[in-house]
Design goal:
Blueprint: E1 15-20, E2 24-34, E3 37-48, H1 54-60, E4 68-69, E5 73-79, E6 84-88, H2 91-99
Antiparallel strand pairs: 1-2, 1-6, 2-3, 3-4, 3-5
């Protein structure tokens, strides 16, 4: 008997927005979460965003305006004993977030 080929869909890591009490707001691919530590890759710090809330940014991306996002960082480890808010982004929001130009002083 011939063996069946099993196709495994490549599991992609979710793109999320993380708000922490001690480290601010970051958007990136969720690599892991263990207790009070979250690890993101290709993350950006969100200094200022246009839109009603981070929930809106996770759903639709930021509104046009004075958005201030830092450049992508290879790996960010956020430790926040006070907890996190983690919102998974819709695909269109991911594209919009990643298109915001890097803010520099």
């Amino acid at each position: 008997m011939a063996k069946k080929k099993t196709s495994r869909a490549k599991k992609t890591k979710p793109y999320v927005i993380v708000r922490s009490h001690t480290a601010g707001v970051h958007a990136g691919f969720l690599e892991s979460r263990n207790g009070d530590t979250v690890v993101l890759t290709e993350s950006r710090r969100l200094w200022r965003w246009c839109g009603a809330s981070l929930s809106q940014v996770a759903n639709t991306g930021p509104s046009s305006g004075d958005n201030r996002f830092g450049g992508p960082v290879i790996r960010t480890e956020i430790v926040s004993p006070q907890g996190f808010e983690i919102a998974t982004c819709r695909p269109s929001a991911v594209q919009a977030i990643r298109l915001v130009p890097e803010w520099r002083v």
